[in-house]
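Help needed: design a sequence for this.
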């Protein structure tokens, strides 16, 4: 942020974060690249798939916590790979045990393994169970404003509609619905999935999103660490542009310098 402007922190479930970019840990070449990209992103919240990541349950195997230490980052275990509410709830409870009572989780319940689109019915059921069980639930969902409102009513601490399909890199396919969700929400709204490049992250923030969560856009870039740095700047720029307020669109040109008072040769 510039010296003359200090933004309020992102607040999720009683926690405050200076960075509005949240990142994942999958698809990198190795843990060293994972670590370098996370550092370059400036992210404070790091998400990982409980079912696919070793955080100590596999003795002797590379441990994510060696490069993403809990005393430096806020860990966000997620339920990637779950297709039923029951599996998602079980996975969150496993993460809570592995992380000594950690209760901030990212819930995602998928409809199929082709689109990875959220199963809204199962997501709603899992969210209600987890909230009642004391979890702080950040939830991946469709871009349906009614579903987003219901997830907030259940008690989710953040609603995370997809920009487009997970890993597709297609950007924001339905900015109008995202804006509807943002306008009605009383909890943070973060775009989760579909971002492909920095300009799309900036656009999400310009729409009024509170943050952006991404993995593939960084990990699948030709230079992931450089892309992580670009995403950091894009999220910051988009946030400042949103707060500054864009100029109105006009049907005709308007000169930057007024005609009145000009010097005639």
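Sure. Designed sequence:
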């Amino acid at each position: 942020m510039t010296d003359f402007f200090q933004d309020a922190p992102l607040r999720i479930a009683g926690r405050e974060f200076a960075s509005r970019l949240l990142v994942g840990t999958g698809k990198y070449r190795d843990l060293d690249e994972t670590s370098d990209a996370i550092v370059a992103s400036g992210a404070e919240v790091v998400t990982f798939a409980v079912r696919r990541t070793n955080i100590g349950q596999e003795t002797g195997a590379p441990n994510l916590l060696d490069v993403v230490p809990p005393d430096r980052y806020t860990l966000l275990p997620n339920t990637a790979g779950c297709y039923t509410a029951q599996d998602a709830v079980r996975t969150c409870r496993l993460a809570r045990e592995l992380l000594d009572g950690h209760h901030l989780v990212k819930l995602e319940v998928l409809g199929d393994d082709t689109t990875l689109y959220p199963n809204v019915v199962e997501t709603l059921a899992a969210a209600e169970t987890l909230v009642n069980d004391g979890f702080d639930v950040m939830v991946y969902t469709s871009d349906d404003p009614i579903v987003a409102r219901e997830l907030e009513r259940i008690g989710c601490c953040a609603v995370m509609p997809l920009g487009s399909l997970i890993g597709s890199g297609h950007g924001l396919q339905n900015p109008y619905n995202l804006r509807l969700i943002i306008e009605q929400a009383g909890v943070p709204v973060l775009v989760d999935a579909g971002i492909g490049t920095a300009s799309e992250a900036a656009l999400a923030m310009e729409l009024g999103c509170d943050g952006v969560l991404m993995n593939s856009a960084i990990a699948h870039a030709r230079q992931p660490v450089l892309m992580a740095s670009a995403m950091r700047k894009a999220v910051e720029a988009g946030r400042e542009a949103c707060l500054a307020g864009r100029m109105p669109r006009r049907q005709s040109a308007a000169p930057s310098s007024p005609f009145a008072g000009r010097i005639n040769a």
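The mean pLDDT is 92.
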